[in-house]
Amino acid sequence: MDRDRLVEAISHGEIIQREDLSDLDLRGADLSGAVFEQVKLAGDQLRGADLTETTLLGCELIGCSLEGTKLRHTDLIRCDGRNASFAGADLTLTTFAETDLTGASFAQSELPLTTFVKCDLTRVSFAGSKLDRTRLLEVDTTELNLTGADLKQVTFYQADFRQAVFEGARLHQTVLVQSRFGDRDLRGLSLAFCQLTDCDLRGASLREATIHNAGFQGADLRDADLTKAQARNCVFQGAQLAGAKLIQGDFHQAIFIEADLSGADATGANLVQSNLLRARCRATRFVDAELTYADFSHADITEADFSGASLRRARFHRTSEQGAVFTDRAAALGDDEKLAQAERFQPAH
Fold first, then answer.
1. List of residues 6+ apart from 55 with CB closer than 8 A
2. Measured between alpha carbons, how far is 5 from 184 in angstroms, rounded to an integer?
3. C or N: which end of the chain has fewer Cβ atoms within 10 Å?
4. Quick check: 136 and 159 in contact, CB under 8 A?
5. What is the secondary structure of 41-94 as a DSSP string?
6. Is the sign of the CA dihedral 323, 324, 326, 331 positive or negative?
7. H or E segment at 269?
8. pLDDT at 339 (0 to 100)
9. How many CB atoms lie within 10 A of CB 151?
10. How far apart are the C-alpha atoms of 237 and 251, rounded to whole Å?
């Protein structure tokens, strides 16, 4: 099949099946709306071509150069795109599903509303790229390269970032659900306004990190280092922070509802107006911490150390505090009897 016959077949809505087109020069060709099934493509034959709203099913694109190619609204399903280059391609609303993209390059590309589902992104490069509302769901992100990338409202689901490269990356309102960071050093990464729900950050270093307004609901932050972290208005609801270091961190108005801070060290931390409702703070160090208006209602502060802490108007309503150490709690609030009575109320029927 030559180029003219191919273009004519596509214009008539024919499905192109089981063809080896690797020898055709399709640079700049209008292939929009085509359906390719089990077709072999190679080299730079598609550079600058228009594949808008095209569907590629089970196609071979190994090492292909798709630089400058129009792939708007295009679907690549169960394709082999290993080592392919998509640099500079139009990837608006493009969908990659169950596609092997090992070693592929999206460097310096724009990916608005692009979707990757169950793809292999091992060693894929997004260096210098702009990911806008991009979705990466259940993908293999081993050694993913995000150097200098700009991520805005991107969604990652079940990603593994333990070997990913984040140097110079900017994350804004990015959502990371059930993703793994492990004990990575994330000190230079800004996670402000990001959501890291149920993520594994055990042992991670967020020392002096900018994470204000971020959400860590249900995250595993055991033994993590948040020393001097800028964490105002962060949400740690239900998070595991046992053994974590919060030393001199700024957690103003942070939410720790039902979080586990057992054995954590919050020495000198700013926890003004923080909410620790039903938090587990057994043997937690709040030495010299600023706890003005903090709420420990129903918290377990057994053997916690509040030596030198500022407790003005801090609320300790119905707390479990056996063995807790206080230098001076005269300015703090104890049980609210009327509230306690309301909490104990049981309807007659």
1. 34, 35, 36, 74, 75, 77
2. 54
3. C
4. yes
5. --TTTTTT-B-TT-EEES-B-TT-B-TT-B-TT-EEES-B-TT-B-TT-B-TT-
6. negative
7. none
8. 82
9. 25
10. 13
Token couple for 146: 């995000």
Cβ within 8 Å of residue 142, ≥6 positions away: 121, 122, 123, 160, 163
Is residue 239 within 8 A of residue 257, CB to CB? The reply is no
Residue 149: both structure tokens together:
């990338």
pLDDT at 43 (0 to 100): 84
Token pair, residue 158, equals: 């079940």
- From residue 222, alpha-carbon distances to 6, 88, 262, 332, 342 in Å are 59, 41, 10, 29, 35
Q: Are 239 and 219 in contact (CB under 8 A)?
A: yes
CB 288 within 8 A of CB 308: yes
The closest of 186, 285, 194 to 226, measured between CA atoms, is: 186
As averages over each run of 10 residues, the pLDDT of the chain (349 residues) reads: 88 92 91 96 90 97 93 98 95 98 96 98 97 97 96 97 92 96 88 96 95 97 97 98 98 98 98 98 98 97 97 95 92 83 79
Bridging pattern class, strands 155-157 and 175-177: parallel
Residue 69 tokens read as 């190619």
Residue spans per domain, the chain: 16-152
Tokens of 280: 């587990």
C-alpha Rg value of the chain to the nearest Å: 27
What SS3 class is residue 339?
A: helix
- CATH superfamily entry for domain 16-152: E3 ubiquitin-protein ligase SopA (2.160.20.80)
Alpha carbon of 239 to those of 180, 259, 299, 305, 339: distances in Å?
A: 15, 5, 14, 21, 27
How would you class 333 by CB atoms within 10 Å of its CB: exposed for 0-12, middle for 13-18, buried for 19 or more? middle
* Residue linked to tokens 């990911």: 131
| DSSP state string for 71-83 | -TT-EEES-B-TT
